[in-house]
Task: inverse folding
């Protein structure tokens, strides 16, 4: 007998606290256009970045367990740095399908930085993780790795996808949080270590210009994750006509309605509550 998750219609599950995971979904859709998608946003738990390690470690594996039971995905992608840097090993232990995590792109930043000063912009929870210490030690031992956590930038990305007017001071302050640290003015690479942040990269670029920084490279792991999904899927077939993408929310509220046009632009036309 074939397990559900081996069926050709089995989706890939993308998981985040909110809309951030769309920055991971987009490159995966580009690489794998026939991939059926379930995008899950834990609105009831949002934001993750201001929560404790214990809260995230308890919440995320349990929720992914429920989602996997309900949607029988072939692969689960934790499209969230906060959840991945805290709970990836617990999720892997709890599930019997491949799990892809999203962790700060310090390695490519260290490979390309000329000044050897790298900024890591994430949530407050992510930037304090030992996981980030390990990545910095392993890949950027000769680099100064500056870190800054911004909950306001997460909220900015959510507001942008709801189509609201944005306050440019938010992106400016987030970047200044790195630039104002010792050696900050030498920074030439910024790791977007929260999946919400590539959604506001344009705003960050405008802020960099306004602040008169040196040219900054903004890096994140989206394309690498897309390749990882393709690799893990191997030869398993994709459907010729995949079902419309669905977005599932752990809480329905008026913001979900405001997000619908943005979700639709990622092919997520079915909106469900978990
Ligand atoms: N998008 C998430 C991340 O990559 C977390 C945002 C939040 O809920 O604080 O870290």
Result:
């Amino acid at each position: 007998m074939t397990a559900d998750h081996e069926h050709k219609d089995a989706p890939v599950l993308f998981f985040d606290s909110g809309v951030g995971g769309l920055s991971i979904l987009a490159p995966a859709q580009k690489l794998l256009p026939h991939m059926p998608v379930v995008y899950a946003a834990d609105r009831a738990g949002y934001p993750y970045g201001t929560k404790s390690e214990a809260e995230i470690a308890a919440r995320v594996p349990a929720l992914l367990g429920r989602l996997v039971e309900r949607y029988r995905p072939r692969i689960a992608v934790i499209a969230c740095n906060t959840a991945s840097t805290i709970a990836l090993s617990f999720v892997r232990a709890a599930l019997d399908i491949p799990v892809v995590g999203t962790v700060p792109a310090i390695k490519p930043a260290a490979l390309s930085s000329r000044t050897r000063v790298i900024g890591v912009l994430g949530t407050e929870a992510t930037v304090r993780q030992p996981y980030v210490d390990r990545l910095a030690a392993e890949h950027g031992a000769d680099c100064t790795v500056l870190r800054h956590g911004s909950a306001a930038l997460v909220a900015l990305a959510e507001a942008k996808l709801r189509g609201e007017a944005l306050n440019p001071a938010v992106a400016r302050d987030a970047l200044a949080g790195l630039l104002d640290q010792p050696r900050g003015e030498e920074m030439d690479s910024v790791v977007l270590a929260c999946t919400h942040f590539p959604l506001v990269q344009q705003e960050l670029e405008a802020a960099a210009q306004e602040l008169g920084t040196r040219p900054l490279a903004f890096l994140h792991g989206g394309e690498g994750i897309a390749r990882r999904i393709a690799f893990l899927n191997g030869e398993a077939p994709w459907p010729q006509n995949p079902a419309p993408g669905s977005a599932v929310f752990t809480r329905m509220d008026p913001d979900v309605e405001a997000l619908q046009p943005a979700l639709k632009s990622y092919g997520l036309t079915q909106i469900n509550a978990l």
Observations:
- The CA atoms of residues 79 and 110 lie 22 Å apart.
